[in-house]
Amino acid sequence: MEPHQLELLAPARDADIGIEAVNHGADAVYIGGPSFGARAAASNEIADIARLAEHAHRYNARIFATLNTILADDELEPARRQIWQLYDAGVDALIIQDMGLLELDLPPIQLHASTQCDIRSPEKARFLQDVGLSQIVLARELDLGEIAAIRPATRPETTLEFFVHGALCVAYSGQCYISHAHTGRSANRGDCSQACRLPYQVTDMEGRIVAHDKHVLSMKDNNQSANLEALVDAGIRSFKIEGRYKDMGYVKNITAHYRTLLDELIERRPEFARASSGRTSFAFTPDPNQNFNREFTDYFVGGRKDDIGAFDTPKNPGLPIGHVLKLGDKWVELETDADIVLNNGDGLCYYTLQKELAGLAINRAEKLGEGVWRVFPKDPMASFKDLRAGTLVNRNRDMSWTRLLDKASSERRIGVWLRLDETTEGFALTLTDEDGHSATVEAAHAKEAAKDAARAEATLREHLGKLGTTPFAARGMALELSQPWFVPASFVNALRRDTVAALEAVRTEAYRRPQRAQPAEPPAIYPEDTLSYLANVYNHKARDFYARHGVRVVAAAYESHEETGEVSLMITKHCVRFSLSLCPKQAKGVTGVQGTVRAAPLTLVNGSEKLTLRFDCKRCEMHVVGKLKPAVAKAGTTPLTFYKTRP
Q1: Nearest to residue 56, comparing CAs of 240, 254, 278, 272?
Q2: Per-residue pLDDT, 41
Q3: Among residues 71, 112, 68, 69, which one has the least CA distance to residue 92?
Q4: How many domains does the chain have?
Q5: Are 379 and 466 in a shared domain?
Q6: Phi/psi of residue 241, each to 5°?
Q7: How large is the C-alpha radius of gyration of the chain?
Q8: Distance between CA 19 and CA 11 in Å, rounded?
């Protein structure tokens, strides 16, 4: 990708969703292969990925395959074979976490650093660039200043990528082991149990309850809509949407939303360009609020804020629509805004007196008057706890919106210019596209003077411009004719079809996959000479890689079960003390409080699970501390013996 290009990178659970991501304006799509992806339940067959790549390449859009889990020694060879299959299927780049892959015989496929690589510093970004990774996704926790500091540490051709939308991991990516410690399901192996979305009781050192049944590790969803230009100026060139588990409607809507915003930015600032071809038009107005979300935050991009958590519920609270007027034995009467239309199948919700989100699915909706609706729920009325007159009601599923996105909802067209010339034997049609590719097809036909010159030209232009089912749209047309000729529609249509096919063949032939970056020689030295379990080294090829790059001591990954005592099971920039207004820094200057608030540990309790929160105030980070459950330890794992002391 060129340094002046801006890339919109969309997720795909499967090939059909990926195709619609391209149709809705994505410059690139990332998708899981058959195995070894960090979303274990979003795998795809090679043939489906090949189908997606073929469609994407029509628009010069690229396909990235995620192979971003840590790998055991016996998985390296199957992973290597899968990478070759992905390359043969037309995949443009591979998103990886495990550095052991760089020690294998790989095809010349471009390599990108996964979010699981936890890239927060200029030194780490430069190292990954110097070992041959072309695109680097930065940690979601960075602010604009930290991003801007990384840009000059890397070469202009190294693309910096950043998540702009979707669910947020509360931990630094790759630095969360709670799921493995408690269940044996490893987040670094694509199987996170999402302990961060559970409710916890928070207690202090004396056992006093600080917060009761709050989802204190659950973040709101990421939304950088207002920060795109600032991110561009800080050096970001690839804008990534989270969501390889998300449905078709989400990907269509969110891709269209950011496509619209980036196009507006490029229109204002012509020094930037799209990273793929064509222009996209939509049959709907994109609206991120219509999809599942936990409300939105821009996280740490503009500095630390106190409203980043979705502490009350990890569910989708939806949008306000009105309040309850009265209840019947089988119905609820609602007063809504005048422009609200309720549909059979809509999902409503409200908060109980305990601030728990309760759902109400509409079986039938009847309009009683202007802004008054009677809805008949699918469930019995007795099941709706604390529902009463005056209760505020939100809608978190709008069936009219869902049905709108179930239909064809976008068109993506590549601009072409048409020129019809006379030849000795007949006519020649030339198509030239916005990327500079050109194709000409000649066909013999007798020349017959037109009886009605104006009508003949209008008919000719009409039939030449019929590009509706193709990926092209006419931007201009020239008729280089010595006089108006009568040309039958059947001849013009056949000539146009043949020329379109010829141009598509030229574009296919001209497509070039991005080049693999060459690692620096002599090998770059890793910024540290000692690696703990936090480096996620799970195979001997990864150990060899780090040893070759100057690391002297390498500990095995947490999943090897060598760390049996209490360790940091999660490291996060989110701070529970700060969010509960218990941070010592917040108390500075507050009379009667300053000096009495200390960053003492807190405890999280969920059922029989207990975790300790420790606070590194110097770094402004929180560590969630715990240990491997005996049952998980007994389940066993592949033993690894790396350097535990300096050789």
Answers
A1: 278
A2: 80
A3: 112
A4: 3
A5: no
A6: -100, 130
A7: 29
A8: 11
pLDDT digits (tens, 9 = 90+) for 492-543: 999 999 999 999 999 999 999 999 999 999 999 999 999 999 999 999 999 9
Select from 389, 406, 423 the last residue of a domain.
406
Q: How far apart are CA 110 and CA 515, in angstroms?
A: 6
Q: What is the pLDDT of residue 639?
A: 65
Q: 207: number of CA atoms within 13 Å, CB side? A: 0
Q: What is the mean pLDDT of the chain?
A: 95
Strand boundaries in 193-261, DSSP class E: 200-203, 209-214, 221-223, 238-241
CB 155 within 8 A of CB 133: no
**Whether 383 and 474 share a structural domain:** no
Which amino acid, residue 166?
Answer: G
Q: What is the CATH number of the domain that holds 9?
A: 3.20.20.70
Express each pLDDT in 420-450 by its tens digit.
999 999 999 999 999 999 999 999 999 999 9
SS3 320: strand
The closest alpha carbon to 56, from 476, 417, 511, 494, belongs to 511
Q: Which residue shows structure tokens 């391209």?
A: 22
Structure tokens at 586: 């917040």
Claim to verify: residue 388 and residue 425 sit in the same structural domain: no
| pLDDT value of residue 437 | 98
This prediction has a pTM of 0.95
Q: How confident is the model at residue 584 (pLDDT cuts 50, 70, 90)?
A: confident
Q: Which of 447, 482, 510 represents a domain boundary (last residue)? A: 510
Expressed as residue numbers, the domain containing 261 is 5-168+221-282+284-290
Q: Are residues 452 and 322 in the same domain?
A: no
